[in-house]
Amino acid sequence: MGERAMTSDADDEFAFPPDGILWRVCRERCGLLHGPAAAVLQVAHPKVGAGVRDHSDFRSDAAARLHRTLVAVNGIGFGTRREAERIARALARRHADVRGRVAEAGDDAGVYSADDPELLMWVLATLVFAAVDGYERVLGPLSPGEREAFYADMRRFGTYFGLVPTYGPRDWGELNRYYCAMLRDERIGASETSRRVAWHVARPRRPWWLWLASGPLRFVFSEIIPEPVRGRLGFRSTAWSRISLYVASRGMRMLVPVLPGWARYAPEYRRAMRRMRQTGVAPSGAAQGTTG
């Protein structure tokens, strides 16, 4: 009986500490400015692009895929261990059949699989840089130690997606070198599949309001996706896109710090904060803030 109770208590603990750097960075909705660009960078890998092409509804509802990814990421980041493991099992079931062959002209011939550590590492790297760059663009730079701590948390986060802890870069410096090398890799963004999927993300058919807004919001892709991948995918930096990003960045720096919690923070973070209050746990450190 006592052993079962201890197990239950452990399961109900948060998967990541509320006063940690992952909560502080990932709770901020301003990071969403970089989220769509991260999704495009993911599918720029020919094998990820082929998997999305063959096993998702990206043509009709690319925005829904982005939403599902965000819900899963935040569900793990702000959930209990029990909830994080449940999401991990659901993802494993969903990804079990995601495999096939990259077979179109211009693509590397070969098979792809959703549990390939090479692909999981690339997806994780895009999530890390999107979160850090989005946070720093609006709320100021993280220290080198905070970046190291965030990457350490994200490496553990990656295990819920099936990435083994021993695979890939071990610290922030190695991660940065890996990321830059991948951007220079001639495969990234060069396939017709990657370009087609990327543009469905950039201009989704549904919902209608997002389709209408996709033109004015094109700067999110034209400026945030780094070269040379941006050019390979067909996005172009222009004076208008550079001005748009500058205005958006300046506006968010002024607006975000004064937003109420319901507008500023991710809903999963706000639910976690309410749970802490209901259980009598006082928020501290990175978890402090108005949740609305």
Task: Describe what this molecule looks like in 3D.
- The structure is a single chain.
- The chain is an all-alpha fold and 292 residues long.
- It has one domain.
- Helix content is 63%, strand content 3%.
- The protein has a two-stranded antiparallel sheet with strand order 1-2.
- α3 (35-44) packs antiparallel against α7 and α3 packs antiparallel against α10 (192-202).
- The N and C termini lie far apart (39 Å).
Topology:
Layout: H1 2-11, H2 21-26, H3 35-44, H4 46-55, H5 58-77, H6 81-95, E1 99-102, E2 110-113, H7 117-139, H8 144-159, H9 172-184, H10 192-202, H11 208-213, H12 219-224, H13 229-233, H14 239-255, H15 261-264, H16 267-278
Helix pairs in contact: 3-7, 3-10, 4-10, 5-6, 7-8
Keywords:
3% strand, 63% helix, 292 residues, mainly alpha, two-stranded antiparallel sheet
Short summary of the structure?
This protein has 292 residues and is mainly α. It is 63% helix and 3% strand. A hairpin with a 7-residue loop joins β1 and β2 (110-113).
Cα-atom radius of gyration: 19 Å
Strand order of the largest sheet: 1-2
In sequence order, what are the helices and strands, one letter per element? HHHHHHEEHHHHHHHHHH
How would you sum up the major sheet? 2 strands, antiparallel
Report the structural category.
mainly alpha
Question: Shape from CA axes?
Answer: globular
